[in-house]
From TrEMBL:
<dbReference type="GO" id="GO:0005886">
    <property type="term" value="C:plasma membrane"/>
</dbReference>
<dbReference type="InterPro" id="IPR006696">
    <property type="entry name" value="DUF423"/>
</dbReference>
<keyword id="KW-0812">Transmembrane</keyword>
<keyword id="KW-0472">Membrane</keyword>
<feature type="transmembrane region" description="Helical">
    <location>
        <begin position="6"/>
        <end position="27"/>
    </location>
</feature>
<protein>
    <submittedName>
        <fullName>Uncharacterized membrane protein YgdD (TMEM256/DUF423 family)</fullName>
    </submittedName>
</protein>
<keyword id="KW-1133">Transmembrane helix</keyword>
<comment type="similarity">
    <text>Belongs to the UPF0382 family.</text>
</comment>
<dbReference type="Pfam" id="PF04241">
    <property type="entry name" value="DUF423"/>
</dbReference>
<feature type="transmembrane region" description="Helical">
    <location>
        <begin position="69"/>
        <end position="88"/>
    </location>
</feature>
<feature type="transmembrane region" description="Helical">
    <location>
        <begin position="100"/>
        <end position="123"/>
    </location>
</feature>
Length: 124
């Protein structure tokens, strides 16, 4: 489990830097201010959770289901939250908003909250 968590952290970290640079430079000309802010939110959450995954990957033994569930919620939640925002922003800028992604963002957010709560409970 440690390797999955650490690899997820590294992947999210690298992609967060790439997407952040992409948003700051390439998308600045085509995105509205609101779309840029939304895209930036996706990048921030992705990078924050990459750091958290890195920390727990090194610190937790993942010997119980609570720790494993927390990690999976953070991994999947980050993907659903951030990548659905990217998809919504990119498709909106093209004039073909992918509306099915709308409900995925809060689902990802819910998984992030659950991951944090499970992480807190595992510390008890």
């Amino acid at each position: 489990m440690e390797k999955i968590v650490l690899l997820s952290a590294a992947l999210y970290g690298a992609l967060g830097i790439i997407f952040g640079a992409f948003g700051a430079h390439a998308l600045k000309k085509t995105f509205t201010e609101d779309l840029l802010k939304s895209f930036e939110t996706g990048v921030k959450y992705q990078l924050y959770h990459a750091i958290v995954l890195l920390a727990i990957g090194f610190q937790l033994p993942f010997t119980n289901s609570l720790e494993k569930s927390a990690a999976w919620c953070l991994i999947v939640g980050t993907f659903l939250f951030s990548f659905s925002i990217y998809g919504l922003c990119l498709s909106s800028a093209k004039g073909k908003k992918l509306r099915f992604l709308g409900p995925i963002t809060p689902l990802g957010g819910l998984l992030l909250v659950i991951g944090w709560v499970l992480l807190g409970v595992s510390f008890l």
